[in-house]
Amino acid sequence: MKVRILVSFKDSVLDPQGQTVKNALHTLGYNFIKDVRQGKVFELEIENISQKEAQKVIPEISDKVLANPIIEKFSWQILNEK
Amino acid sequence: MRFGVVIFPGSNCDYDTFYVLKDVLKQEATFLWHKDHDLRNVDCVILPGGFSYGDYLRSGAIAKFSPLMQEVKEFSEKGGLVLGICNGFQVLLELGLLEGAMLRNKNLNFLCQFVHLRLENDKTPFTHKGKKGQILKIPIAHFDGNFFAPPQTLQELEENRQIVFRYADEKGQTSEEANVNGSLNNIAGLLNRRGNVMGLMPHPERVSELLLGSEDGRVIFESLINKY
Description:
heterodimer; A: about 80 residues; alpha+beta; Mth169, Chain: A; three-stranded antiparallel sheet; B: alpha/beta; Rossmann fold; nine-stranded mixed sheet; 5 helices
């Protein structure tokens, strides 16, 4: 089972790296870009666990380890295997 | 006073801290390995500066799961003194022993320079040998020293006088210019609610011996040595 977790800064947190990327894009002429927020992607390959268990444990892992809940938010999805 | 300096994989200011305690200030000091479960009867635990776990994931994010941190947590809950310097401060924030979080420096530069700090609270075990309003010139060396706390938390920290040091200019003005990393309210160091745990981003252990140019950092260690 593959799980993808996205971690990014909460809206109330300043993201200077995102701003830097935005400015670079503007310099290249992509002026329609209003804002850029930079985050992290985690892809977990997990086994021997039911989907139900995963749905309980993935947010736990995300909250405890992958994200700092004071400054970051996360979202996750189980990827459908082909 | 018996001090314990914790070593994580990637800590690199452990020896400098140990040297100041043992050789300069002639105190009992020992190293504490992060994988042990033994605080060796120390009176004060110091989490030193460095790059524990390479700052992977987030600075201090993985170090907080080190076995010894269980003992450090219990020790602090019983009132034991804990000091976190730079990466040590980041670990204490990740552990939740101090409130808030660190972000990347506002100007996205690794800052390696002297700063001036204004001492805000001289009624702590870490600063009672100093005087409120005192200016200290201490070096910083960090990439992620931009202190953040949600508005409610920030207000509480201020109201409860938990802010110990602020970035200031040499005249003691907490200007925006003096706030080199963009920390909220120029916060450079703070205390937990109880007052037995302190973290600061600057490195006092680098300025505790006149031979090396300055002794401005000494006041923190001398405060710890002389019981509050």
